[in-house]
Structures are given as structure tokens and as C-alpha cells.
């Protein structure tokens, strides 16, 4: 037993004991040495002794030493990233690199081949490796029990992820007398909590982590087909652009043949040049000739100097369909832009065009093939994929407020496209007082409703977004495309747009005119609800036909129409249309399902039971009920779901109210958490070791680390303290004795 006294408490204790002895003796003597008083005074003295002992804080100390041998857990990474071939032999630099997995195998029991192998030669190799392994860990195994444990993740396919945090925590839970952890990994973690959380826990338990980094900190020579951005479906007979990205980790420029296969025809080959230690973004163009489901693949050849040939190919599915887009053009006067736009779209076999020409100065509306007598009602309007609004407004002989309300619903709830084409008469200014104002992608100058006329032609200037956008891609090559835009015939009128609204994307501006917010925006897009909107701030695009006919004028408007109608044509039936976002879904990321549902009478369904039965690639079935999007979203039902794996998902959409069924498929890209070929993350391993008071070493220096672990001093014994002075039993004993003392005094007749 130990006491934590001070000089003052010790002197006070001695004084109290001496005083107690004297007082108790006098009291007993006065009572004539009565037996009862003698008992009470003895009890009084005992209470004073216990109080003095409590004052000096007595503690019982017990030293505890574990009887079992301490353990050292060797955690080695078995995830897919360990297949990266970037571990060089420092002693034989001419040897080809080996994989990280092979390098780790030489340090663990996993390196030992099957002992039951009938091949004597293999058995000898096995014995040699086992002997080498034993010698490597021998300095530690004499003092500790070395345990080898693989780790990766808790995913369905464990090797497709790395959870460093969970691996470290599980090691502490499995082993009671854990002396330390050796973590052999490339440091790449992509699932679970951050590993420094587990490192903090280990530090509090005095368990250091000795990290061994495997792999190269930098990219070894490699050419990688990094990504593609292909659409999920295309139209037969129409060119499909497939953007791709190539990374070149070689020191020299390379001319690479990029091959597109699986087209049910000849392979498409394009030669590109990628700068050394650089990257390239390019596109392949393919014109499908047949309807159906395709599985395409893009390949680049394997360079003799690259280390990883497994990242030179990407496969992806695409669905080719027939096209039947419905377009409505609404105009007041037959200006040149209207005439050439109508003629160009009518010549497109995949587009059905209807026109409504109001002719405000004449009685009646324009007539002829494809012309309408009046603005379509709600039921018929929602059949159109894209609507062009020219120089028209809300007037007695033009659009009504109800028409504007239906146009808003077409865009927001039915994934339709709306194109604003203002003119020099300024009719569209009245639209800004209706529900269409929220769809307008730009803020207009209310004082200049008729825009600005120019004495000399002006030109468009592409923004950074415009240079990347497929809408403004008039040429395949980016440099040629920008040159074409700079040389297009100019325009001599433009709308008085002050700036783009928040959430809008400016693709092109005026080349010289500005407002207080910057250059005048001329081509602006935005997403509203489930649909898309485009603003064209000039009516001079028809001039692009000069010398080239429809080449650029129709190419631009054709791309715009198909971009706007893309989602609406993902999957549709007689009474139901299903579309989703994003266009290229990925596993473990939310997909928004949207369904436009019509009633039996052809009107947008306001309430109903719309269910999507989803069958995953593994055969698991999940039902998702779509809910109405809101009172202002007619006929739109929406809900989200998260795919757990990549592959083809089969969707069966049903509606109880109209009995409609719609079958379709969604191609979901599998998310590759484990990237083969990426540099090792030594910074992660360094942080784990620093937090837990361990060390970091490369795989070449592991012997030095093992020797330093073997020289670690023995841990101090665990001291268990029993604080008697603050123990409830001790305090209860004092109270009990005080009670007995008080009762005894009463029985003895003392006050």
C-alpha cells in the first residue's frame, strides 16, 4: 500500500492521532474504566484512524505482466491495385518490373507454394522460399508471435476496394496482446473511413504501425486509354461522336492508332499524336447503318516500352434506334431565319416539322403542308420534342397565357426542348411577364426590347464552354472548329441581353459589344426541370449558308434539336415515356428515373400508381414506385435508385391507371475503385505511421525496419491502482461505524 501524503497532511495526521489517544484515554478514565465506554472510545479512535488514512490517500498497486507472447500482425494488401506492375529490383535494374502483389508475396506466408504439389522441383522452390521468409522475420519471431493477415475491403467483391481503416481496427480486435502492426500496401484506400481514424485509436493503445510502401511513387512508362464519353443510344444513319482521352506517360511523343470495333462493319481507325508526358482529348465518328444493341470497343496498341497493357482497351454498350423527332416552329413573320430553318428541318428524314405562322398584319395564319391552324392544346403540345419560339409574344392574335403555361410544363415536366429565337420586332419581351420568364436563360434589357441593329456585320466568339460543347462543334477538329466560327458570315442584329442567369451556360458571345456585366451573350443554354432551353440572340444564322449551303446552318440546328430531344427518346410507348439522368449512369451513384404518363384519354396523369421493376445483371429484382413530381408538374412521376453493380439493368414500367407497360434497359458503368497503373500513395502510409508513432519504409528497406522492431524495448508492465480512499466500500464502512458509534452512545445513556 502506498500513501500520497504531504508534510502538512502528515503533521496534521500525527497531531490528530496523538490528540485522539489522549482524549479517548481521559474519557475512559472518567467513566471509571467502564466496559461500554471503553468500547465506544475504541470505536471513536478507529474512526479517527480511518479518517487520517483517508486524508493521506492510500492506494493498493498491482503490477500486471501478460503471460502470453506478444503478437506482431503483418497486414498485406490483396486488392486489385496491387496488380500494378511497377516494382523494380534495385540490385538488377535491367530486370523487368514485377507486380506489387508479387513483391508482397515474398514477404509473407502467401509466398509459399502449395506443399502438396507433386512436383519435386516446386517443393524445393517452396522450401527455399520458406527458409528465406523465416530468416527475414527471424529477429522478431524470437520475441513475438508473427501473424500474417491479408486485407482488402468488405465489398461484395472484396478485391475491388481497399479499406485501410477497417483492416487496422480488426487487427486490434482479434489480438489482445498486440505489440505492433506491419502494414504492407500501396496506400490506396477508396472505401470506409479515413485510415488516420484507426491510427489515432492505435496511438491511444500504444500500438505503433510500421508501414511498408509497395510500388512506384510516380507513373512508370505507360500509355493509357483513360476514359470515353459515349452516348447510351444513337440514331441509325446519324453520325455519333465518341470522345476519348489518352494519357501518355512516356517521355517521347507517340503516334497512336485508335481503333473502334464492334460496329458490325469495318473497323474505324484514327491516328492521333500524343505528346510525351501529356494527354489528348479526341473523338471518333461512327455512322451506324442498322438498328440494334451494339457492344463497341476502343483499343490503342501496346507500346513495347509500356508496363501495363491492361489499360489499352475500353468496352461499352450502345443502343441504335430509329428516329422520329417532332418539332414545332412558332413565328409571327416569315423572316429569313424562319424560312431556312423550316426548309432545313423538313429535309431531315428523322424530323417531323409543324409550323404555326401567325401573320399579325393579315387575317388568319399561314397555311400549307405541315402548317397548323392554331397553337396545339395541352394534349397535342406534349407530343412535340422541341419547340422553336420566334419573334412572337402574348397578344390577342398570338400566344395566350395558357399556351405559355403549357410550354413551361413541356420543358419542366416532359423533358421537352424550348428554343428562344427573338427578333427585331421585340415580341418576346411580353413573354417575360409570363411563366416562361423562369425558363429564359438570359436577363434582358427592358429598355431595349427591339435589340440593336449594326451597320457592319459582327461575329460570334466561342467561350471556353463553347469550345468543348458538341452543340457548337461545326468541325471535328477543335482548332478547325474555332477557325470556322471566326470565319462564319456575320450578323447585323442582336438581342439586348445583359447577362446569363445563374445556372445558365454561355457558349458564344458578341465579338466586340459588351454590357456592364461583360460581353453580350448570344448562344446560352440551361436545364430547367427535366428539359432544356436554348437562347439564340441573333437571327442571322441563316447567313452561314453562304457558299456552303446547309453545311453549317443545318449542322448546328440539327445538333441542337437532337441534344434537346435526347432524354425524351430514351424509351417511349403509346401512353408512357421513361427517361433518366445522368445519361451515362455509374454503379453506386444515384440515378433519377422520370416517367411521363398519360391517362386513358391522352391527358397528363396527375395522380397514379407508377412502378418500375428493376432487374439487376445478377438477377436481383427491385421495385421502385415513382411519385408525382408536384402540383405544377403535370404527368411527371419521379424517384431515384442506386445501382450496386455495373452491367445491363432491365426495367419494366407499369401504370395501374392506364394499364400501360414499357420495357427498356439501362447500361450502368461499373465504378473501378481499384485503378491499376496509378502511383503508390506513400503519403497515406506516412500519415498512418506518424499518427500511431510508427515508421515508414520502402519495400527495399524492410530488413532495417524488421531489425528496428526487434530492438523495441519491452513494454512497461501494466499497473493497476486500487484507490482505497475513494472506494465506496471504504466510505460506506466509515458511515457504518459512525452509525454504530452513535447508537452505542445512546444505549450507554450518553448525550
Structure description:
The chain has 751 residues and is α+β, with helices and mostly antiparallel strands. The protein has 5 domains: 88 residues; 177 residues, Rossmann fold; 97 residues, Immunoglobulins (Immunoglobulin-like, Sandwich); 245 residues, 3-Layer(aba) Sandwich (Rossmann fold); 96 residues, Immunoglobulin-like. Helix content is 26%, strand content 31%. It has 15 helices and 38 strands. The protein has an 8-stranded mixed beta sheet with strand order 18-17-19-20-28-27-26-23. An 8-stranded antiparallel beta sheet has the order 29-30-31-34-33-32-35-36, with no helix packed on it. Strands 6-3-7-8-37 form a 5-stranded parallel beta sheet. Strand 17, helix 7 and strand 18 form a beta-alpha-beta unit.
Amino acid at each position: 500500500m502506498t500513501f500520497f501524503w504531504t508534510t502538512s497532511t502528515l503533521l496534521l495526521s500525527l497531531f490528530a492521532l496523538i490528540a485522539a489517544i489522549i482524549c479517548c484515554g481521559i474519557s475512559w478514565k472518567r467513566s471509571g474504566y467502564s466496559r461500554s465506554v471503553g468500547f465506544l472510545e475504541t470505536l471513536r479512535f478507529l474512526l479517527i484512524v480511518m479518517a487520517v488514512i483517508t486524508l493521506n490517500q492510500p492506494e493498493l498497486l498491482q503490477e500486471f505482466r501478460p503471460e502470453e507472447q506478444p503478437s506482431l500482425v503483418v497486414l498485406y494488401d490483396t486488392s486489385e491495385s496491387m496488380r500494378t506492375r511497377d516494382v523494380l529490383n534495385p540490385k538488377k535494374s535491367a530486370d523487368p518490373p514485377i507486380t506489387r502483389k508479387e513483391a508482397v508475396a515474398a514477404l509473407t506466408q502467401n509466398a509459399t507454394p502449395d506443399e502438396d504439389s507433386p512436383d519435386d522441383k516446386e517443393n524445393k522452390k517452396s522450401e527455399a522460399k520458406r527458409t528465406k521468409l523465416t530468416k527475414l522475420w527471424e529477429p522478431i519471431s524470437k520475441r513475438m508471435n508473427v501473424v500474417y493477415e491479408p486485407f482488402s475491403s468488405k465489398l461484395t467483391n472484396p478485391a475491388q476496394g481497399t479499406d485501410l481503416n477497417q483492416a487496422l481496427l480488426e487487427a486490434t480486435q482479434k489480438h489482445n496482446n498486440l505489440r505492433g502492426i506491419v502494414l504492407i500496401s500501396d496506400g490506396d484506400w477508396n472505401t470506409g473511413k479515413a485510415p488516420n481514424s484507426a491510427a489515432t485509436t492505435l496511438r491511444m493503445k500504444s500500438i505503433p504501425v510500421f508501414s511498408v510502401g509497395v510500388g512506384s511513387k510516380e507513373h512508370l512508362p505507360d500509355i493509357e486509354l483513360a476514359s470515353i464519353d459515349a452516348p447510351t443510344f444513337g440514331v441509325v444513319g446519324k453520325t455519333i461522336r465518341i470522345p476519348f482521352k489518352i494519357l501518355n506517360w512516356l517521355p517521347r511523343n507517340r503516334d497512336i492508332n485508335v481503333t473502334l470495333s464492334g460496329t458490325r462493319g469495318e473497323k474505324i481507325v484514327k491516328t492521333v499524336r500524343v505528346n510525351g508526358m501529356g494527354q489528348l482529348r479526341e473523338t471518333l465518328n461512327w455512322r451506324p447503318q442498322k438498328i440494334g444493341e451494339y457492344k463497341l470497343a476502343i483499343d490503342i496498341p501496346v507500346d513495347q516500352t509500356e508496363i501495363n497493357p491492361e489499360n489499352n482497351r475500353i468496352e461499352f454498350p450502345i443502343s441504335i434506334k430509329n428516329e422520329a423527332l417532332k418539332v414545332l416552329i412558332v413565328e409571327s413573320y416569315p423572316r429569313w431565319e424562319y424560312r431556312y430553318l423550316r426548309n432545313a428541318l423538313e429535309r431531315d428524314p428523322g424530323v417531323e416539322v409543324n409550323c404555326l405562322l401567325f401573320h399579325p398584319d393579315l387575317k388568319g395564319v399561314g397555311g400549307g403542308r405541315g402548317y397548323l391552324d392554331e397553337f396545339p392544346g395541352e394534349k397535342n403540345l406534349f407530343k412535340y420534342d422541341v419547340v422553336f419560339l420566334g419573334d412572337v409574344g402574348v397578344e390577342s392574335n398570338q400566344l395566350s397565357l395558357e399556351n405559355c403555361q403549357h410550354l413551361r410544363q413541356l420543358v419542366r415536366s416532359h423533358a421537352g426542348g424550348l428554343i428562344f429565337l427573338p427578333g427585331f420586332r421585340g415580341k418576346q419581351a411580353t413573354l417575360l411577364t409570363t411563366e416562361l420568364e423562369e425558363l429564359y436563360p438570359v436577363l434582358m434589357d427592358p429598355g431595349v426590347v427591339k435589340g440593336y441593329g449594326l451597320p457592319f456585320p459582327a461575329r460570334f466568339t466561342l467561350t471556353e464552354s463553347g469550345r468543348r460543347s458538341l452543340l457548337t462543334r461545326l468541325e471535328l477538329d477543335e482548332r478547325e472548329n474555332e477557325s470556322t466560327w471566326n470565319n462564319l458570315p456575320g450578323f447585323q442584329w442582336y438581342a439586348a441581353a445583359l447577362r446569363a442567369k445563374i445556372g445558365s451556360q454561355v457558349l458564344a458571345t458578341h465579338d466586340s459589344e459588351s454590357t456592364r456585366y461583360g460581353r453580350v451573350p448570344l448562344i446560352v443554354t440551361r436545364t430547367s426541370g427535366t428539359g432544356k432551353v436554348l437562347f439564340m440572340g441573333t437571327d442571322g444564322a441563316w447567313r452561314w449558308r453562304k457558299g456552303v449551303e446547309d453545311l453549317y446552318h443545318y449542322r448546328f440546328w440539327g445538333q441542337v434539336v437532337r441534344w434537346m430531344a435526347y432524354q425524351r427518346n430514351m424509351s417511349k410507348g403509346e401512353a408512357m415515356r421513361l427517361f433518366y439522368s445522368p445519361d451515362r449512369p455509374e454503379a453506386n451513384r444515384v440515378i433519377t428515373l422520370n416517367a411521363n404518363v398519360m391517362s386513358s384519354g391522352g391527358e397528363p396523369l396527375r395522380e397514379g400508381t407508377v412502378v418500375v421493376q428493376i432487374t439487376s445483371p445478377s438477377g436481383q429484382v427491385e421495385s421502385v414506385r415513382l411519385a408525382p413530381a408536384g402540383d405544377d408538374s403535370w404527368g411527371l412521376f419521379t424517384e431515384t435508385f442506386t445501382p450496386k453493380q455495373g452491367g445491363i439493368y432491365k426495367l419494366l414500367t407499369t401504370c395501374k391507371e392506364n394499364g400501360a407497360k414499357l420495357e427498356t434497359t439501362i447500361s450502368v458503368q461499373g465504378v473501378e475503385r481499384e485503378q491499376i497503373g496509378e502511383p503508390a500513395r506513400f503519403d497515406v502510409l506516412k500519415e498512418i505511421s506518424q499518427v500511431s508513432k510508427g515508421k515508414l519504409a520502402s519495400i527495399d528497406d524492410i530488413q532495417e525496419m524488421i531489425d528496428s522492431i526487434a530492438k523495441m524495448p519491452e513494454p512497461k508492465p501494466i499497473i493497476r491502482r486500487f484507490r482505497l480512499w475513494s472506494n465506496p466500500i471504504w466510505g460506506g464502512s466509515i458511515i457504518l461505524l459512525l452509525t454504530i458509534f452513535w447508537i452505542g452512545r445512546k444505549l450507554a445513556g450518553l448525550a
